[in-house]
Each structure stands twice: as structure tokens, then as C-alpha cells.
Amino acid sequence: MSEAAAQLGIFGGADLCAPEDRDRYCTPPHVIEIARTALGGIDLDVASNAAAQEIVRAADWYSLDTGRDALALPWSGRVWCNPPYSKGAVDRFSDKIIAELARGEVDGLLVLVNSSTSAAWWQQLARGADALLFCSSRLSFWHAETKATQKGNLYDQTIFSFGAVDLTPLDQLGAVIRKDRATHSTKARR
Q: Which contacts of 51-58 are long-range, i.e. CB under 8 A and separated by 24 or more positions?
């Protein structure tokens, strides 16, 4: 495991170096079902763990728990990403997202993050996205080890959409803002 990966402490699990607890929370099942429908399936979950895969059921998944660092490996197909939120982690994932989209192997990508609209990483994703979804309510994430659902989430969430994604199912979660592709700074993939 790289030093940067060890510092991220991304996905929970006994073999990690002092992971931040907030990195051990997983996407609510109803959001995964909507994402799966919007993407037409999930080929790759890039920030996952074994517990999350009971719900996500991606064809493949990356996790530091398994020594498969999403920041070092290539992405392809229909991708789901709920990145870790510990200090610096979401910044690195944002950079990786833009790099993987430019590489051209990602068909469709949904990224779930906190609505930190003034953060540089949020602005980077917003500039490149084909659409943004502002969730109408705060999501209740669940903990990978304890399975307990987080109550009283303090943050609103945004889902960024890139490439081939059916935006219609996302309407169930909140307001979807579609960007004009003619003025869009990042071209649709494939």
C-alpha cells in the first residue's frame, strides 16, 4: 500500500492505518438502487468495502482493504464513486476523476459528495460534470463495521453525473441541473 493510500485510511477494515471514522460510512441502499438504474448497472465501485458490496453489487470494486487502490488503478465502464471525506482524500479523488474521464475508458460516472460548493475540488467536479443533482434531503449513511445508520447528517449532498447516465431516475433524489453541452468544458466520454 502506498504511503498516500495508508494516510487516506479510506474504507475501514482492520488492516488500515488509523482510518478516519467518516471514511467508513457507506451509501444508503435506496441511493445505490437509483444510481444502478441511472447507470444501467455498476461495473466498478471505486471507493468501497466488502460490506458495501452486499448492496452495491458492482462487477468489480476497489478498496484499500483488498490492496486495490482506486487512485493508482485505471477506471472503466459504468462507475460509482462515493469517495472518502477525510482531509485531502476527496481532493485526490476529484483529481483522479478528471484524469480518468480524460483517459476515455469511463462510459458513465456518478459521484456522491458533500455539497461543499466553495471547495476547490467541488468546483473542479462541477465544471466538468454533465449534470449536478442537489439532494432534497440529507442522506443517512451507514457504517461499514457497525452497520448503524448515521442520524442527523450535518451536510447536504451533491451527485455529479458524467457521460452516459440516464438522469431521469435521479429526479427521485432531488433537483437535477443539466448543463449545456455546447458550453461544457469536459466532453462526454465515448
A: 51/12, 51/26, 51/144, 51/145, 51/147, 52/26, 52/27, 52/144, 55/26, 55/27, 55/29, 56/27, 56/32, 56/80
Q: What's the confidence (pLDDT) of residue 26? A: 65
What's the chain's Rg over C-alpha atoms? Answer: 15
Render pLDDT for 127-159 as a digit per residue (tens, 0 to 9).
999 999 987 776 666 455 666 666 766 677 889
Q: For residue 127, what is the enclosing H or E element?
A: helix 120-128
3-183 folds as Rossmann fold (3.40.50)
Distance, CA of 149 to CA of 26 (rounded, Å): 9
Domain segments of the chain as ranges: 3-183
Looking at residue 1, its pLDDT comes to: 35
Share of the chain above pLDDT 90, in %: 47
Side-chain-side CA neighbours of 123 within 13 Å: the count stands at 3
CA atoms of 56 and 69, how far apart (whole Å)? 18
Single-letter amino acid code for the residue at 54: E
Nearest alpha carbon to residue 46 among 95, 101, 109, 105? 109
Half-sphere exposure of 74 (CA within 13 A, CB side): 7
pTM for the model stands at: 0.79
